[in-house]
Fold this protein.
Amino acid sequence: MQYTAQLLLPVVEKCIDDVQYENYNIPTLLYGSRVLINKDKKNTVGEFAETDYVDARVEKQFNKIELPFVDIENAEDLDRLTFINEQLKKLVANKPVSDKLMHVALTEDQMRVYIDSIDSPVHASEVMYGDGMPDELHDYNIMLRKADFQYNKFDNMSLKQVRGVKFGYGVVTTESDKADSLYEDVLERLHEIWDLASPSHRYRLQCWFDREIDFEKGHDTKISIDPDNIVRVRGSRSARALDSGLPKLSKRLKRKECQLIALRDALIELTFVKVADIEVETKASSQNNKKLYDLINYLPGDEI
């Protein structure tokens, strides 16, 4: 079972890394698509490799742990190690493991740590986005969607006019003015949100926006009532959003990650001698060797 655990560990580590990447990675999206390192690059197959993107995933290597095995002195620990191996194989195969089975696999202390880990934010994405969208951005999004709807209505009128469906100049202009007015309301609301926010809350808000808030630049600000230059909230489905990427933050994936880590740690404890114990043993051995060396050098040569 210890040899099985040793061979299983790299697979488990890879699975943990995959789950964490899927759940916490924030993709870099421009107008809804991932950003290429070189946008002009042509691929004869018609597809791009992972390394072609600015947010390309860095693949990690997970090697077998080379440590001495701990001596298992009772059948209960051996049965528990066997059971842990089975549960880890299920998780790696993307099969569910219930908390009832986790209770069987873990000690009381390990189970307590596991339960606490489920609700404890660990990754930066959880800290930044785990509390959800700030409340004031909900009504901001509602206002922005109304402005987008009005702009699209005006834009469609313009297209139909070109295609032969006649709309009076006054009608089209009126619809355009309505869109501009709604975007002005959106921009005013954004100013209000930003001005009332504390420095710490501004940091949180900035994490949720698709571009930098640069109101301090005055007339040089890049934010305007143009639909392409209005600030949008991350997660937006608008094709005009500069960066809509958000982490998944799935509760199911978080639970799976915590299960994998808890079972992995329990498996290591039942399989390998602790590194600290090896260091103590090595240090004691070195001290004994030094004492023997000193003793040999103290004795006269003809008496050795």
User: Anything to note?
Assistant: The longest helix spans residues 169-196. Residues 2-127+249-294 form one domain. The first strand starts at residue 29 and ends at 30. Confidence is low (pLDDT under 50) at residues 278-286, 288-293, 295-304.
